[in-house]
Write a structure and sequence with these properties.
- The complex is a heterodimer of chains A (306) and B (261).
- Chain A contains ten helices and 16 strands.
- In chain A, the strands form four sheets. Chain A has an eight-stranded parallel barrel, surrounded by six helices.
- Chain A is of the alpha/beta class and 306 residues long.
- Chain B has 261 residues and is an alpha/beta fold.
- Chain B has three domains: 3-96, Beta Barrel (Elongation Factor Tu (Ef-tu), domain 3), CATH 2.40.30; 108-217, Rossmann fold; 219-261, Dihydroorotate dehydrogenase B (pyrk subunit), domain 3 (Ribbon), CATH 2.10.240.
- Chain B has helices at 27-32, 76-82, 119-127, 148-154, 173-183, 195-207; strands at 3-16, 19-25, 38-42, 53-61, 66-72, 89-96, 108-114, 132-139, 157-162, 169-170, 188-192, 212-215, 231-236, 239-244, 251-253.
- In chain B, strands 10-9-8-7-11-12-15 form a seven-stranded mixed beta sheet, sandwiched between helices. A six-stranded antiparallel beta barrel of chain B has the order 1-2-5-4-3-6.
- In chain B, strand 11, helix 6 and strand 12 form a beta-alpha-beta unit.
- Classes of the chains: A alpha/beta (306), B alpha/beta (261).
- The A-B interface holds A 24-27, 31-32, 34-35, 47, 55-56, 58-64, 66-69, 71, 73, 76, 219-220, 248, 268, 270-275 and B 1-4, 42, 47-52, 93, 218-222, 224-232, 240-242, 247, 261.
Chain lengths: 306, 261
């Protein structure tokens, strides 16, 4: 029996614990459900969705790096209609916070996605303005404060009562400024970091390993950058921050929470251990018990700088 | 249904140049795995290499409750795996992927394997009982030729080709296979090996109106279908799409694979 209160609140949503499966590493939930009970998650952010089906980039789409991976999937997904028809019925059966990550080529597409999804049985919308693997849209909205503020303020009215979480790219000079712009535009929360743009080369063929030449770096290799960015963003904005980047165990999550994250997302870790989220959750609980804290709120943002 | 498991390593032995076979204890895998399926193995214990490595299941021993994986040492992950001592615990997810189709109840089958692509085909011959089976195996040279005794035991006819002629006949395995087709009829072809070989086997099968399944290799992330990195381009109902090699594959009908992606 646990005496620790693991629940957290984000933008009006109550999560039973702070661990969320990150978009792009948990499909639409069904495959992971073969490995553990998804109802134990604080939340699940499903694979990035576009209005029309998207084929994704040419393979290879993955390269391994020291303690990390580069991916260039390119938002392969079946499109909104197929999602509602084929994936949503399963998601609806879950007793966890359901977040749908959306991406568009134009502001109109983002708005249409948000409008349709706001009428669905989901809990929140995550605005993907940070995917490094697609040519149009996505990241092109997310790299400047003006661009972020504009797209967020355009999409927000179409979200109805659903909280809007804006997922930020680390491929900018000042992520704090971008987060502030998201808040000004009406975001209810921000999540960060998406992947860092990278490249890996096969020295014998003298070609990039990825079919798309570039890809997004994730995994433990990016953790310290992500923690620093979560810290910077938490200081600048009033809205809740969801932290991610290389979390594979409880101690990693605690770093993010101390830096100011109200919740965390686990992504690359799930690719190695399908139940990585549960391991992270157990680790958080152990830490709270060991340090004599009663709730997650006791440690969120409680970093003491030198 | 696949599971994340640990199993004791019974044996880990070099069977050819850079080629190994590891035997792992697992009641669940030995009872449930089907030919064409794979295990996704955590080769090291640290953060590098981070990802698991997928290996074809090469045979199962249902009485002893164990299974074999064949692999070639290519990089850091497989090097670590080759150093895994008997008695230690292996961390793996299995059985994964779509198996070869046996539902046709085929009478006469041919398997065509190249290099380390021969592994799943041995398992297939071990499990799929049919009236007549022929195995066509190609290797670069005799040093790379593996599991010949096992293949000979489980197939009615075994034809070996090597690129340098150091074993069997000199030349491509697809040539030996095509020549045999002039003499003999098959109602199902199963192939696994390098892409140029698979493409050629597919062409030969297509030309003669034979059913043919191929097992593909692609750089994988999770192995369980959540990350969408192991894309394989296929054409279904006139439409090209990327399917997951780990989930909708690794076995595909050869005529639906878009080879020149």
């Amino acid at each position: 029996m646990t005496s620790v209160d693991l629940s957290v609140n984000i933008a009006g949503l109550k999560l039973k614990n702070p661990v969320i499966a990150a978009s792009g590493t948990c499909g639409y939930g069904r495959e992971l459900a073969e490995f553990f009970d998804l109802n134990r998650l604080g939340g699940i952010s499903v694979k990035g969705l576009t209005l029309e089906p998207r084929m994704g980039n040419r393979p290879p789409r993955i390269a391994e790096t020291p303690a990390g991976i580069l991916n260039s999937v390119g938002l392969q997904n079946p499109g909104l209609d197929a999602f509602i028809r084929e994936e949503l019925p399963f998601l609806r059966t879950l007793d966890t916070v359901k977040i749908v990550n959306i991406a568009g080529n134009t502001p109109e597409e983002y708005c249409l996605l948000a409008e349709r999804l706001s009428a669905c049985d989901i809990d929140a919308i995550e605005l993907n303005v940070s995917c490094p693997n697609v040519k149009e849209g996505g990241i092109s909205f997310g790299k400047s404060p003006e661009g972020v503020k504009r797209i967020v303020s355009q999409v927000k009215p179409f979200c109805g009562k659903k909280p809007l979480i804006v997922k930020l790219t680390p491929n900018v000079t000042d992520i704090g400024e971008i987060a502030l712009a998201a808040q000004d535009g009406g975001a209810d929360a921000v999540s960060l970091i998406n992947t860092l743009l990278g490249m890996a080369i096969d020295i014998y063929s003298r070609r990039p390993i990825l079919g798309n030449n570039f890809g997004g770096l994730s995994g433990p290799a990016v953790k310290s950058i992500a923690v620093r960015m979560v810290y910077e963003v938490s200081r600048r904005v009033k809205i809740p921050v969801i932290g991610m980047g290389g979390i594979v165990k409880g101690e990693d999550a605690i770093e993010f929470m101390l830096a100011g994250a109200s919740a965390v997302m686990v992504g690359t870790g799930t690719l190695v251990y399908p139940d990585a989220c549960l391991k992270v959750l157990e680790g958080i609980k152990d830490y709270l018990e060991k340090t004599g804290h009663k709730s997650c709120h006791d440690i969120i943002g409680k970093l003491r700088l030198w | 249904m696949s599971r994340q498991l640990t199993g004791r390593v019974i044996e880990n032995r070099q069977i050819g140049q850079d080629v190994f076979k590891i035997t792992v204890e697992s009641e669940l895998v030995s009872q449930n795995a089907l030919p064409g399926q794979f295990a996704n193995v955590r080769c090291g214990r640290g953060l590098t290499p981070l990802l698991r490595r997928p290996f074809s299941i090469c045979s199962v021993d249902r009485e002893k409750g164990s299974f074999d994986l064949g692999y070639q040492v290519r990089g850091e992950g497989t090097r670590l795996l080759s150093e895994t001592a008997p008695g230690s615990q292996l961390d793996f997810i299995a059985p994964l992927g779509k198996p070869f189709s046996a539902c046709g109840g085929f009478d006469r089958i041919a398997v065509v394997g190249g290099g380390i692509g021969v592994f799943p085909l041995l398992f297939l011959l071990q499990i799929f009982k049919c009236r007549e089976s022929s195995a066509f195996l190609g290797f670069r040279s005799s040093e790379q030729a593996v599991l010949l005794d096992e293949f000979s035991r489980h197939s009615g006819r075994l034809v070996i080709s090597t690129d340098d002629g150091s074993l069997g006949e000199k030349g491509l395995v697809t040539r030996a296979f095509e020549r045999e087709l002039d003499k003999r009829a098959f109602d199902m072809i199963y192939a696994c090996g390098p892409v140029p070989m698979l493409k050629e086997v597919g062409r030969i099968a297509d030309e003669r109106g034979l059913k043919c399944q191929v097992s593909l290799e692609q750089r994988m992330g999770c192995g369980i279908g959540v990350c969408y990195v192991c894309a394989c381009k296929v054409k279904r109902q006139g439409k090209e799409e990327y399917l997951r090699t780990c989930r909708e594959g690794p076995v595909f009908w050869s005529r639906e694979v878009v080879w020149d992606d």
